[in-house]
Amino acid sequence: KKINLMKQVEDRISEDLRAQATNLKTAAFVEGIVFALLGLALAIAGCGLLFMIVRNILGAIGSLTDTMATLANGDKTVDITGIERGDEIGQMAEAVLVFKENMIRNDELDAEQKQERAAREARAQKVEQAGLMIAIQFLQTDLLLNLYVHSYFYK
């Protein structure tokens, strides 16, 4: 009897240990699936965030590229976008703004130089015309003097 009783206790302990092992195995499997799903969710969220960041940067760089091409074609009325950004894109936009302002300043200087050149040419033409008038008056005076002298001596 004692042996049977011990056998029953032993069998019961064995069943309890098997049940606990099965429960631990199931719990470990569930935890593995939960961690895998959490990892997958984090990876998807990270990829989404990365996509948004890359799209933002590429969009800003594309806009700056278009702006620079417009400036290179001579259109200085284009708005520079992205200056308000506090990152490197904002610094690049500020540099493009400096280029735009320098282009406008150069155009203004060219216009001033053209006006000054036109004024100098106009003054030079007036001086040349005045010189010609003086020369003509001198020749007229010389001709009249010669006629007077000639008529006085050759009467």
How would you characterize this protein structure?
The protein has 155 residues and is mainly α. The protein is 88% helix and 0% strand. It is built from two helices and no strands. The protein has helices spanning 2-72, 88-153. Helix 1 (2-72) packs parallel to helix 2. The radius of gyration is 49 Å and the shape is rod-shaped. The protein starts with a helix and ends with a helix. The model has no long low-confidence stretch (mean pLDDT 91).
What is the fold's blueprint, element by element?
Layout: H1 2-72, H2 88-153
Key structural traits:
mainly alpha; 155 residues
Q: Mean of residue pLDDT?
A: 91
Instruction: Please write the string of helix (H) and strand (E) elements.
Output: HH
Distance between the termini: 185 Å
- Alpha plus pi helix count: 2
Shape: rod-shaped
Largest sheet: none
Unreliable spans: none
Radius of gyration, in Å, reads: 49 Å
**Helix fraction bin:** over 70%
Classification by helices and strands: mainly alpha
Structure summary, number of beta strands: 0
Strand content: under 5%
